[in-house]
Each structure stands twice: as C-alpha cells, then as structure tokens.
Amino acid sequence: MKLSRTFWRLSAVILTALVTLAGPRGSAGSTMAVKEPANGDLFTAFVSVLRHPRCMNCHSRGDFPRQGDDGHPHTMNVRRGTDGRGVTAEKCSTCHQDQNLSGSHLPPGAPNWGLPPATTPMIWEGLSDAQLCRSIKDPKQNRNRTIDQLVEHLTEDKLVMWGWNPGEGRTAIPMPHEEFVTRVKEWRAVGASCPN
Which helix (H) or strand (E) segment is 67 a member of? Predict the structure, then answer.
C-alpha cells in the first residue's frame, strides 16, 4: 500500500513536470517555449531602414546634406545652418516643397524638409548598431524625445515617411512601411533595448 501511494505520487510529479515542459508553444510556463529575440535583435531587425540612403543622406557626417544612393555631397554647396534649414539664400525650402515635384530627379519634398539642427545633428554615419540605437534614444542627441515620441517620429513623421515615396529616379526604402512600423513598436514594447 505504501509503495503504491509513493508510485502514484511520483507518477503525478513526473506527469506534472512533463505537462509543464511540453506546455503550449510559446506559453509563459513552458521551458520549451520558442525563444523570443533579445531586445537588441528587435532593433537590428529594422536598423537597415535607418542605414538606407533616404535616411543616411541627412544623418551623415559633415555640415551638409547628401544626395543619391551613393551619398554624394548635395550640389550647390548647400549647408546645414543653425536650424538645419540651410543658410542665407540657400534655404532648403527654396527648392524642397511639402511634396515631391513631378518628374525624374526634380527636387523631392515633404513637410519640414531639412537636416537636424546644428545643436543635435544626429549623425549616424560610422556608428555600430549599438551606438546608433543609443544615439537615437539619447534625449541629448534626439531633440529631447521620449521613447514614445521617438517611435512616433520614426513611424508617423511625414519627412521620415517620405523615404518610402521618394519621387521619380530615387530608390525607396525596400522594407514595407507597415513592417517597419510593426518592428519599431515591437522594439518599444519590450523596453527598446540596444544590441550589446
């Protein structure tokens, strides 16, 4: 009798352990759950967008914008200026309107066209993924944005969204905008951590 009680108790413990280990895929109690990507992996899942020429041409080294897929310096010796909108008569808005002009290689446009201001130039060129992640999250470098404001900027700002519709003769960002938004919001949801 004592042996059979011990046997049944042991069987119950083993059965409970097996059910816990083999629980539904991805459930919180399962040790065999599908491993979620580390937060840094979630950032690297969309960092290619930030490195695309449509973004990097305004987030590159130097006090001037760049152009084209090769990132050559902007023609006409355009400069950032203190507010990021150009200098003297060479203001960005002189050529860049609130929308693209029709025709191949005519000036592109979106609301608030310009570079980041001189006080926070947000230069990403040459940064590792971890450095870029820390840079965009740093209020001293991102114009005092919180994570929620940063996500809003990355996913809804019309100037950023221009990268998916850059006008004739320009390569659009290849990751679909909806996928980019999803990945950015997933990254925020798990704490917006950066790669190591």
Answer: strand 66-67
Burial class (CB within 10 angstroms; exposed 0-12, middle 13-18, buried 19+) of 1 = exposed
Question: Is this structure's pTM higher than 0.85?
Answer: no
Number of DSSP helices (H) and strands (E) in the chain, helices first? 8, 4
Q: How far apart are CA 133 and CA 26, in angstroms?
A: 28
106-155 tens-digit pLDDT: 999 999 999 999 999 999 999 999 999 999 999 999 999 999 999 999 99
Q: Which amino acid is at 104?
A: S
C-alpha to C-alpha distance for 29 and 18, rounded to whole angstroms: 12
Sign of CA dihedral 83, 160, 65, 112: negative
Q: Which two tokens stand for residue 132?
A: 């870029």
* Spatial distance between the Cα atoms of 9 and 100, rounded to a whole number of angstroms: 74
CA separation for the pair 3, 100 (Å, rounded): 83
pLDDT tens digits, residue range 49-66?
Answer: 999 999 999 999 999 999
Cβ atoms within 10 A of the Cβ of 22, count? 11
Assess contact for 92 and 18: CB atoms under 8 A: no
Which amino acid is present at 137?
K
DSSP-based three-state secondary structure for 177: helix
